[in-house]
Design a protein that fits this description.
Blueprint (H helix, E strand, L loop, with lengths): L20 H8 L3 E5 L2 E4 L1 H20 L3 E2 L5 E3 H7 L2 H7 L5 E3 L5 E4 L4 H11 L8 E10 L14 E11 L2 H21 L4 E5 L9 E8 L5 E5 L6 E3 L19 E4 L6 H8 L6 E11 L4 E9 L6 H10 L9 E5 L3 H7 L29 E5 L8 E4 L5 E6 L10 E3 L19 E15 L1 H6 L2 E3 L5 E3 L1 E8 H11 L1 E2 L2 E2 L10 E4 L6 H16 L4 E4 L5 H11 L3 E4 L8 E6 L5 E5 L3 H13 L1
Bound molecules: adenosine-5'-triphosphate and magnesium ion (MG).
């Protein structure tokens, strides 16, 4: 491709809309244009990058025996009503774009395809002989994200590869899941990314597990906790760890102590001269289920620890059935306005005890008149602890479970693991922290969707049972930008060779020099003929402008027929290292072939 014929508009200044380096660079280098919030046009250079990623994804997926297909983006509401996700996706989370057709039927634009694929499996899979089966597709997904940002990182329209596998049993699912782990690792390695697979939250579905593939980068929205020995890595949403040991309590006998003005753990510990590890703190939440029922939740947790909102939400979803529901619509800390709607008297906030009386809750329709009490594991073994007394300005000290306060029944893990905590598998290992961009998520779904939609098969014993499912997502457009986020310098993008839009660029410094033009044209033709995707910068621009643009675009290898042309040589420069060598004209193709082979092996 000749730059003189290309739509190439580069910007010297950072666009105001972009916050992180990869977003700025892709805009500045003319790879994409923003059309609306979270909606981007992929211009020709970016499209080539996306196609290269797609090719690698296809090769690795096909090698596992998965088959490519293309599912509709326009999806009928009925399917989503069958799975029970229509209301959550269009109303509660509101992530799905919903619309009506001219007949007044409801449709959604596909944010994901579990429903569609399960309906196909329901119609077409009858027997164990058809299993296992794995279908995948690559296409544009639509999600009305609350906060679209960082360009392709969180778009409202983006390209995803999603795959769905069907199995007769868990063992078969596990095998495919492992193959996907391998395939994804190959994909990200081949794309030149520095990544890590981490244990991930599977939501309340549970399943037997899920893993996310994280590209390591400071701009990542996710926090990863991992150990140096490589044995443990998890998204903080999911991470577990051994909390620091609690210090022995200085209070040996029970007492109700005046503790004026100590409505925070910090003030309390300063006042009592004790460690937060000796305190049982009690936090109030308000959850609304899909049935419209509101439940007030009291969580008891050690004073030095924090609640992990994802773990708490999962616990509450698991308890939904007890309140006749399926899912959590909202989980909040009730503010004064919310409290006014249900509290029968002012709450002793800052001084709550685990046994705060249910009489604090008024009898109101759609409100459960008892607290749901959850105890985090961190407080179960505490002795002689400090906790609220349900009276403002007083705390209990030297309290014990079963004596001054009875222990609520539900013991759960809702604590947030932290960097520095000890690891379960080896307490000599401490958790370290890193930031990551989630580029892939593999998931053992189990029978959630097959049961909901009635997708069954007949096993060898002649019984009709639900299909066991897995699903595997990979953000193709997010991956492209992540590669930039991991690889750039002050001059611009440094594409990993395997996914660069072009591998080489021949720059003609001086268009008035016929020798330069001749050498450049010759190289341009020879390189392309040898299968090396090459650009020719034949624009009538100053050399400085051309070199700057080549750096900004991030093309891995640059060839310049310059001063040494008289000696039959040209400059071959590497974008990543800025190393330049003079190579005889007739060796340029071979040299580049070698460089590319080394970079993509
Ligand atoms: P996130 O937690 O980042 O919102 P998700 O868990 O909703 O992602 P999945 O449903 O697992 O994402 O989708 C599979 C993959 O699609 C993700 O791993 C990610 O790479 C990509 N992806 C998801 N949402 C977006 C988005 N809004 N823009 C670009 N890529 C996305
Ligand atoms: Mg995910």
């Amino acid at each position: 491709m000749r730059l003189s014929q290309m739509l190439l508009v580069t910007l010297r200044e950072d666009p105001a809309e972009a916050e992180i380096p990869s977003h700025k660079l892709l805009l500045r280098a003319g790879y994409m244009r923003r059309i609306a919030s979270g909606v981007y046009a992929y211009l020709p250079l970016l499209w080539r990058v996306l196609q290269k990623i797609a090719r690698i994804v296809r090769e690795e997926m096909d090698a596992t025996g998965a088959q490519e297909c293309l599912l509709p983006q326009l999806q009928p509401a009925e399917l989503w009503q069958e799975s029970g996700r229509w209301d959550t996706y269009t109303k509660a989370e509101g992530i799905m774009f919903a619309l009506h057709d001219r007949q007044g039927r409801d449709l959604g634009l596909g944010p994901t395809h579990e429903e569609v694929i399960t309906a196909i499996a329901r119609d077409m899979i009858r027997s164990y002989r058809q299993l296992p089966l794995h279908l995948y597709q690559m296409q544009t997904k639509f999600r009305d994200e609350i906060r679209p940002r960082f360009g392709l990182m969180r778009g409202r329209e983006f390209i995803m590869k999603d795959g769905y596998s069907f199995h007769g049993d868990e063992a078969s699912l596990k095998q495919t899941y492992l193959e996907m782990h391998r395939a994804y690792s190959n994909i990200f390695r081949r794309c030149g990314l520095d990544f890590r697979a981490v244990e991930a939250d599977s939501g309340a579905i549970g399943g037997s597990g899920s893993q996310e593939f994280m590209v390591l980068a400071d701009a990542g929205e996710d926090e990863i906790l991992y150990t140096e020995d490589g044995q443990y890595a998890a998204n903080v949403e999911k991470a577990v760890s051994v909390p620091p040991d609690a210090l022995p309590s200085p209070f040996t006998t029970y007492e109700l102590r005046p503790t004026p003005g100590t409505d925070t753990i910090e003030k309390l510990c300063q006042f009592l001269q004790c460690s937060p590890t000796q305190v049982v703190k009690n936090l109030l939440y308000q959850v609304v289920y899909d049935t419209g029922m509101t439940v007030l939740v009291l969580v008891s947790l050690r004073g030095d620890q924090e609640v992990n909102g994802v773990k708490l939400q999962n616990q509450l979803t698991r308890l939904a059935a007890a309140y006749g529901g399926n899912t959590v619509l909202s989980l909040t800390v009730p503010d004064a306005e919310a409290q006014a709607k249900w509290a029968s008297q002012p709450l002793p906030l800052g001084y709550l005890a685990p046994d705060l009386a249910d009489t604090y809750i008024q009898s109101v329709p759609h409100l459960v008149p008892q607290f749901l009490r959850l105890v985090d594991r961190t407080v179960v073994d505490l002795q002689n602890f400090v906790t609220g007394s349900n009276q403002p300005d007083y705390h209990m000290v030297g309290a014990n479970w079963g004596q001054q306060v009875s222990m609520p029944q539900r013991v759960v893990d809702v604590r947030k693991a932290r960097p520095g905590d000890r690891a379960f598998h080896d307490p000599s290992q401490c958790l370290q922290t890193a930031r990551g961009i989630e580029v892939g998520h593999i998931f053992q779904l189990g029978t959630k969707y097959s049961q909901a939609l009635g997708a069954t098969y007949t096993n060898e014993q002649g019984e009709e049972i639900p299909l066991v499912m897995g699903c595997y997502g990979l953000g193709v457009s997010r991956l492209a930008q992540s590669a930039v986020e991991q690889s750039y310098d002050k001059d611009g993008i440094i594409w990993p060779v395997a996914i660069a839009p072009y591998q080489a660029i021949v720059t003609i410094p001086n268009l008035k020099d016929p020798d330069q033009i001749q050498a450049a044209e010759q190289l341009y033709t020879a390189l392309n003929q040898a299968g090396i995707e090459t650009l020719l910068d034949d624009r009538d621009e100053r050399p400085g402008v051309k070199f700057k643009d080549a750096d900004l675009l991030g093309i891995p290898f640059r060839i310049v027929p310059g001063r040494s042309l008289k000696q039959g040589k040209v400059e071959v420069g590497q974008r990543a290292t800025h190393r330049v060598e003079e190579i005889p004209l007739d060796q340029v193709v071979m040299t580049l072939q070698q460089l590319i082979a080394v970079a993509t092996e």
